[in-house]
């Protein structure tokens, strides 16, 4: 397995599918090198986290799946104290914004794939990253209200993190900020933008490796002005601005990019993954908590 974003990387050779369900040997070594992960440390840290959670009044009684605890441990490079602090923040956000995690279904979420507002690509970068595309121009607030957009964003990130490959390698986002809908501006409030940024960056146990912004617009400039003060210097260094979407091929293999962004990919609808992600079992353990109170 080679690491990098070579334009000539080939599917099923350097490029692995999004749905893999395990860590290949190369990425096990990567987790050990970059995240301090060993079988012994994993077992010990999970037990330590469970003891922290049981003693805390805000988390006692909640049943956390092992994979969820591993998510937080991996993003914090196996620092159990930092992982515990982030879990508490996640629980607090979920209690305060419970509507973001309720009334989810395949029938409801499938609209985001039809309209291409949010898309998870079926193939990974050669370095193992998951790729998520957001296309602002396709968002119609009249038929897809902002509260539902927030729900969908959190759903996709949380469910993508069930994959060990996503936990270890992180996510790269392509955000097409083109917008001719002036109504989009009304939703660029500091509170809306901060919730999305804080929830995704500070609370969700995800490693964001790159953010690619394409097709600049008035709506984006307003949103960026509001959210920029909150963005960490680490994330700012990982943001790439593209005047021409075709320059994405300098960062991603053509084989995994949609044709309209200069790639070779034509059919990239993830219906089967979405169905599996919205089974009763998966929704009942959303975010890795089995007995969340309604």
From TrEMBL:
Q: Which residues form the CRAL-TRIO domain?
A: 106-269
Q: Which SMART domains match?
A: SEC14 (SM00516)
Q: Which cellular components does GO assign to this protein? A: membrane
Q: Which Gene3D superfamilies match?
A: Alpha-tocopherol transfer, CRAL-TRIO lipid binding domain, N-terminal domain of phosphatidylinositol transfer protein sec14p
Which CDD domains does the record cross-reference, listed alphabetically?
SEC14 (cd00170)
Task: List the residue ranges forming a coiled coil, or say none.
Answer: none
Q: One GO molecular function term?
A: phosphatidylinositol bisphosphate binding
Going by the entry's taxonomy, the superkingdom of the source organism is recorded as: Eukaryota
Q: What is this protein called?
A: CRAL-TRIO domain-containing protein
């Amino acid at each position: 397995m080679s690491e990098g974003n070579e334009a000539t990387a080939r599917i099923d050779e350097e490029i692995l599918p999004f749905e893999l369900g395990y860590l290949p040997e190369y990425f096990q070594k990567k987790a050990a090198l970059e995240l301090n992960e060993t079988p012994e440390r994993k077992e010990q840290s999970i037990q330590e986290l469970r003891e922290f959670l049981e003693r805390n009044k805000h988390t006692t009684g909640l049943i956390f799946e092992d994979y969820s605890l591993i998510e937080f441990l991996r993003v914090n490079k196996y620092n159990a104290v930092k992982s515990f602090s982030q879990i508490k923040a996640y629980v607090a956000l979920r209690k305060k914004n419970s509507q973001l995690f309720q009334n989810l279904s395949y029938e409801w979420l499938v609209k985001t794939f039809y309209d291409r507002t949010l898309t998870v690509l079926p193939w990974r970068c050669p370095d193992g990253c998951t790729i998520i595309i957001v296309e602002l121009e396709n968002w119609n607030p009249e038929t897809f209200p902002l509260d539902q957009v927030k729900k969908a964003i959190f759903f996709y990130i949380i469910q993508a993190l069930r994959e060990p490959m996503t936990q270890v390698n992180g996510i790269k986002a392509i955000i097409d900020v083109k917008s001719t809908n002036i109504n989009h501006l009304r939703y660029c409030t500091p509170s809306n933008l901060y919730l999305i940024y804080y929830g995704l960056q500070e609370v969700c146990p995800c490693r964001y490796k790159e953010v690619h912004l394409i097709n600049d617009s008035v709506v984006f400039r307003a949103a960026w002005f509001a959210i920029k003060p909150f963005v960490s210097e680490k994330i700012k260094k990982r943001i790439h601005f593209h005047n021409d979407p075709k320059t994405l091929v300098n960062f991603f293999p053509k084989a995994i990019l949609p044709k309209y962004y200069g790639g070779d990919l034509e059919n990239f609808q993830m219906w089967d993954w979405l169905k599996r992600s919205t089974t009763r079992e998966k929704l009942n353990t959303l975010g890795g908590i089995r007995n969340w109170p309604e």
